[in-house]
Amino acid sequence: MISNLKTNFEASLIPWVEDIARKNDSSGHALYIMKDGKPVLEHYGGYHSFEPASQEVKATSRFNIASARKSYIALVVAYALYDRLLELDRPLDDYTEESNPVFSGVSIRHLLTHTHGIGEGGEGLYKEFTPGENWSYNNIGVDTLAHLVMEMYGVTISSFLQERIFNQLEWVETGWMTEPSPELVKIIGNKGEKPLNGLHSDCDGTKKNLFVSAREFAWWGQLHLDKGRVGNQQIIPEEVVNLATTIQTPSGLPYDLPRNGAFWYVQDIPRKKSEIGDDVPAGSYQILGVTGPTILVIPKYQIVAVKMYNKRYNYGGANYLHFLKEYSNRVADACT
User: Fold this and answer.
1) Most exposed of 107, 145, 155, 229 (fewest Cβ within 10 Å)?
2) What is the mean predicted confidence (pLDDT) over 37-62?
């Protein structure tokens, strides 16, 4: 069974991942798939950048996961909900001393599910739509909640996760990076331009300087699939994981729009503007970043599928949803 599954993944996903890397000028890529808590496919290709003498991508290579870091911040927010520091349907104004009129009517649920209706332009924040009546992806919800929970717990996002999870699991290939290191894969902008290092001077966990190896990224997905349990140890309370990975989107959202848990995209039924393909079973969830890293978790098949790239706007253009759906469909179809 496992050997057949590996063959299916190799035939369907490796050529596809490599083709996307060529088309989008990603210098490096990786693919890591787990079934029933065990790796079944591990594939690495390309280099850390297009620079001369750049290192080959290998198991220890760490990619900048960009907005996929939201899944890490989401877990801390889920902890705050579990600890009753936050309530999903209470307004943000209840938790802040300085009230901004643009946040009027915005709840914690709205911030978690991209339904808050706040946009950001040249003159600052503005009301884009009534909270809970539409969906729009931006960083306002994640930034607002990240700073709120850090204030509540009195520690940074990165410190919280390091103490409660990373140290316990002895993960050494996951972290917010401030200094160059040989294992860090660079970020490709336009081909021919100097690559970006993806570093930031701040390592509090709110910035886009989280670097993770493909295998630890997959184990992050597996930790969610196993409801926070590793062996005989409950690393994370099960309810915390459920809060993060089950649909929290307000009811009544238009049919075509995505449904979210705590920032994760969650499948219920196929939806036109969702990033998850129509063939993926209900209950599955996915998160991704602008440089191409993606975790797809399919509980029905006990699958965690990770792909990594290092190209900004990896699926650039109006048709980017097609490629995201195609990836998740290929993973799901290979399981059947």
Assistant:
1) 229
2) 97
